[in-house]
């Protein structure tokens, strides 16, 4: 019996440890809007990780709370720029907007539709020319 | 097992049946809405066997006036059917211009073989055939049905050639706002710092091809509409109709190339 109890306790502790470890990783992602590997890839070097996330904290209380506070998160705030990006975005008006080809595509589809009608008339004209009638 | 599967199978069969009916319904409605299928009586297959029984009877009873008259009436009737079919197609055409619709139907001073003129002449000829009392008289009148009207060799192809020419002109005209829009997009992309060399080259090619197509399409209706049955009989009409069809095929190829240019430009600018 005592061996079984010990085994159960050991399994429970192991499970708790795994849960805590998993939570620490997900909190990093939650606080940063992405995983630490995303940060590293933003930097262009997968091996580099932001210094703030190098040593993950183990605040069990904040991890188990329904809404972890920003203090419990090891990385920067969501609004902070990622590594390797500009600190401030381009001012409005300087970035070229996407070109909309919707109108051109619509006009082109009208051309397609008319071309089909022309094909029909040309086929009729060809058939009439090959008509053995009089 | 059977009790559990049967309802499932039943539902599946019902679902498949409903889907099939929907599919059949959609297909039949498409064909029913297509006037060229429902009412186009100008196709060769439906017409040139139309009077076979009457001509077989003439062969079986060579001296019978009534039998020969019936064959003549049949030949005229099937031309009426063809002219009615052409009139329907022209009236419902979305590509023919209003002027060309009038020219084809009533002719005016442009088309000597309008549907109205053809029908009037054939009506008069039918009255003459119906009044004939001799085999010789009937043979003379029946022999006029084809060469004096040339419904199948001239009127039918003329109608379709003019419609194809008007349709091609309509396609060409539709390229004008398209080319304008594409030029605007190219200018916008250029202002944004994009390399538009390829897109501009494609647009220049598009405009050139549409211009060439216009040169081919423009004269067609004017050359074809004045053709008369006498022009066919003299051998003048056939090469004109052939050249017209050839021009329209070339124009179509050019317009298809221009369409490809436009599509390429859209891809280039949209990427």
Structural class by helix and strand composition of chain B: mainly alpha
Helix content of chain A: 40-55%
Instruction: Find the count of extended strands of chain B (DSSP E, 2+ residues).
Output: 0
| N-to-C span of chain B | 57 Å
Structural class of chain A: mainly alpha
Q: Any idea what the shape of chain A is? A: elongated
Ranges of chain B where pLDDT stays below 50 over 5 or more residues in a row are 1-48
Portion of residues in beta strands of chain B equals: under 5%
Element string of chain A (H = helix, E = strand):
HHHH
Biggest beta sheet summary of chain B: none
Which radius of gyration of chain A do the C-alpha atoms yield? 32 Å
- Uncertain runs of chain A: 19-91
Computed over alpha carbons, the radius of gyration of chain B is 27 Å
* Proportion of residues in β-strands of chain A: under 5%
Number of helices of chain A: 4
Sum up the overall morphology of chain B in one term: rod-shaped
- Average residue-wise pLDDT of chain B: 85
Number of helices of chain B: 13
Largest sheet of chain A: none
**Structure summary, number of beta strands of chain A:** 0
Which chain pair shows the most residues in contact? Answer: A-B, 31 and 50 residues
